[in-house]
Amino acid sequence: MTLSVSAALFGFAFVTTVTPGPNNLMLMASGANFGFRRTLPHMLGIVAGLTVLTLLAGAGLMALFDAFPAVRTVLQGVSIAYLLWLAWKVATAAPVKAASSGGRPMTFVQAAAFQWVNPKAWAIGLSAITIYAPDRSLLSVTLVAVAFAVVCFPAISIWAWLGTVVRQWLSSTGRRQVFNIAMAALLVASLYPVLGFHG
Question: Rg of the Cα trace of the chain?
Answer without folding.
Answer: 17
